[in-house]
Amino acid sequence: MFYKIKGVDTDKCNGCEKCVQICHHSCFDMVLSGNNVVAKFINPKTCDSCGDCIVVCPVENTAILLKSANKNKEGYVVKIDGETCDACGKCISVCPEKNIEIVEENGNIFAKIIDPEKCASDGHCTFCCENDNKKYAKHKK
Questions:
Q1: Are 46 and 26 in contact (CB under 8 A)?
Q2: What's the CATH code, domain 3-68?
Q3: Are 97 and 120 in contact (CB under 8 A)?
Q4: Is-above-0.70 flag for pTM?
């Protein structure tokens, strides 16, 4: 696993409770932060980093924070398998760089990284992929 769930950006969280509702391991709870009720990551030891919380988070670029499980992610880029991608577009909605698009090539419609140099390698797109078709590959700049 390249990334693990680290927490919630309480400045971005809108308090919708979707992460609390979908989490199978009760890793999130709602807490008061200033004048707002927001999600808090309370149970990291039981989290299996399934990514369901990232998929349901309606906040643009998601309020769920990730940490690298690999100490050296620099130089890596996400590679999308065009054969198994179903072009659902979930990866597009969570990409902080807006660096993924849906393309058609040789009769196949799939998601594709626009510019490997701009890939943030932040892991959000790999978490939201239900087909598990995104892998990390060493990218030579």
A1: yes
A2: 3.30.70.20
A3: yes
A4: no
